[in-house]
Structures are given as C-alpha cells and as structure tokens.
C-alpha cells in the first residue's frame, strides 16, 4: 500500500493571511436599486485562516443608523489548477453563490470578478499599508459600464 502525502498550503494560500483579523471601517453606499438614497455605513469583518491554511473564512456585518443592515459570509481560497483566487459569498440577501468569483493579486491589490444572472461584480481590496485596506465593489450589467456600489476604508483592530 502506497502512502499518500497530504497536500500542504502554498505561498499563494498564505497570501490570504493579508485579510485575516478583525477589520472595522467607514463605508459609503452609493444609490442603487437596493438602496435608492445610499449613505454612510459601518463595516466590521472577522476573518481567519482555517482548514489547515487552505481557506480564509470571513464574517461581515454592516450597520446603518445603529442597526445591522446586512450580513455576509465569505470563503476565500486559491485554486492551483486555474491559478486564481476564489471567493464564495453568501449573504442576508439570500442570492445563491452558484459560481465563485475569480481573483488575482496585482501588486498590493487583490481583484475579484464575478458573473451571475443579476450581472457582473468587481471586488477590489487595496492594501495601502500594514493594517489598512480600501475596498471597492462595482457592478455592471454588460461588463463594459461599471457603477460603484460601495467603498470602504478599513483598519485592523
């Protein structure tokens, strides 16, 4: 009987550690079909590497007007077969995550893009310096014209 060597996380997996920790930040929601007025919000994310370092598990809560307005759960990983990062996202809006967003690191930015029957999404995590990142979520119906849905600036606590 041949011994099977268990896979080990790669340097690409370890790079997800950049998102680990507790992050809090001020956000701006832009007018959209879900929120015609837009406005300020407070975001809090708790993330940790888990499953022997292969995945980053992330829990997000957004508050507006002192009340929880949105919750999300993300599972971030790296797919060596495609050479891309993956993000599965589940949230309090209840839309299914049928296909993960695919992403790449470009310098100090982690960029994801997704497609669903509702349109396309672009997610940008830009690490400005240790303990700080900026996030931007953009949406598009056709993949040509993009609209900013939200932006936030976060600090690791």
Element string (H = helix, E = strand): HEEEEEEEEEE
Shape: globular
CATH topology: Lipocalin
- N-to-C span: 49 Å
- Number of continuous helical runs: 1
- Total number of domains: 1
Low-pLDDT segments, ≥5 res: none
Strand order of the largest sheet: 1-2-3-4-5-6-7-8-9-10
Identify the CATH architecture: Beta Barrel
Q: Strand portion, in percent?
A: over 45%
The major β-sheet equals:
10 strands, antiparallel, barrel
The structural class is mainly beta
Helix content: under 10%
The average pLDDT is 94
Name of the CATH first level: Mainly Beta
Number of strands: 10
Full CATH superfamily name: Calycin beta-barrel core domain
Radius of gyration: 16 Å
Write a brief structural summary.
This protein has one domain: Calycin beta-barrel core domain (Lipocalin).
What does this structure look like?
The protein has 157 residues and is mainly beta. The protein has a single domain (22-156), classed as Beta Barrel (Lipocalin). 3% of the residues lie in helices and 61% in strands. A ten-stranded antiparallel beta barrel has the order 1-2-3-4-5-6-7-8-9-10. The longest helix is centred in the N-terminal third of the chain and has 4 residues, at 11-14. It is globular and about 65 Å long.
